[in-house]
Each structure stands twice: as C-alpha cells, then as structure tokens.
Amino acid sequence: RLLDKQVALVLCGESHQDAIDVTRSGGIFDAQDGWIEMAKLDILRPIFIDDPEFKGSDNPEDMFLNNLMVQVNATSKKCLTIEKAKGWAKDTVENLDVYGQVSFLWVTENASARVPKGRVFLLRFLSKAEFDPDDDDDSDKGTWINLKHQPDDLPKPVKDWLFDDGSCNSGKSHRSFEWGDLDFEAFQLNRRRLTNEVISTQEIDKIVEDRKTKLKEENLLTWDEWFDSIRKQISESGDIGLDLILESQVPPWELSLHRPQYIDAEKESYSLPH
Length: 274
Hints:
This protein is α+β, with helices and mostly antiparallel strands. It is built from eight helices and eight strands.
C-alpha cells in the first residue's frame, strides 16, 4: 500500500542504448548486413579519423593519398555483373578469412552493354600510422602497398580510382562498395559516431520518432508505445489508475547497435567485418 492505495510497480522495457535497433523494420533487432555503395572519400575517411595529421589537414584527399596503405586481397578472374560481383566479393571475404573494414571496387569494362559487366577488386586500407610491417598475420591475403611510394604496384584500375579527382561513383567506369548495415539510416548514424561527429540528443530523438512512425505503417509498436496505448484505455475506463514513466532522452554516445557475427569456429575470429 502507498498513501492508502493499492499500488503495483512494474519495471520493464528495452535499454535506451537499443533505441535504433528496436525501431528496425520488421521488428528484427539484429542488423542485416550487405554491400553498400559509397564514394571513395566516405570509405577512406574513418581510417584517418584519429590521425593527428588528418585532423589538421586542409585537404583531406591529399592526406589520404600521402598516408594510405592498400592491400588487394583478390581480383575476379572474369568480368561480372554488379549483382554477381557482390556475391563473389562476399564469398571471397569468407574464404580468405579477411577481417576489418573491407571494400570492393567494380570497374566496368563494357559500359555500353545492356547489362554492364566489370572486374572486381577486393580491397583493404590502413593509414601508415596503423600499419605494422612486422605483422605477418595477413601477409597471405596480399601485399600492403604504400600508395605514395608504390602506386604503380597497384592494378591500374585501382590506381586510377584512388587518384580520381573526387567524382568517383558518378560515372559508369567505377563503383565502390563497403560491407555494412543495410539499414542505411542506422549505418550512417553509426559512421557519424565512429568518425567522432557531434550528434545532438534532439536529432537522435527525431530519428527514433520517425522510425517509430514507419514501424506503425507495418502494424508494429515499440514496447513503450504499446504500453502507453494500454494505459490510455485503462485510464479512460476510470477503474484503475495507470501511469507510465519513461527514461529521459538518450545521449547519442550511449547508443549501441547489434551486429551480426560471422565466426570461424576453429579460429574464433570474424570472417566478415562487424
């Protein structure tokens, strides 16, 4: 009893860190990963985010070119359509047990064809500051090439793409992809956090509310909205008093996103980035 009333206190609900995951389409919390088309600079920017030279650079692209290590993990033996290129790249990553940030470049060699095909280059990147020449753990996955000093050691299509003036992905010759969350809003939000962009609580609130609205179109409610609807029904009847106390706003830095795990049972390592 509390203040001469019978009171029941029920504590339940999702952790606020999961605000993005619980608003995924279909009510599926785990991310569904796949290949996401991205511009070259968007792929490279997270690699240098903690590099002090990058933070003070007036020309990030020059910074990339002067401080980038490139590893060509594999090259397709024949030209593939873009959809088959995605499948080939995924299978190759798993077979090679490549880990970390993985990208692939698709270079069209017959752009005038009704269904264009192109060669595929599976790539990984590191900043020179991160590169350890004595680390032989992945030497079997390709030689690390210093872009500034060894550009001609790269396949010509890869070299041309890296030295492009910034118009990559705008034409028919090059398209670049990175493995990541196919919920593009969640993917972009996570990238922004990982690159230390300041995201306001108000922006997070709006993103979550917009995602809730989309869920309603799928006839799905988050737990707090479902409970609130029950509370309103009971309160309107006048028989029982029911109150809902929600947690305060979610700070962006406390968000977390579920990641699918592709684990090699023998090596206990990830075969795809997570």
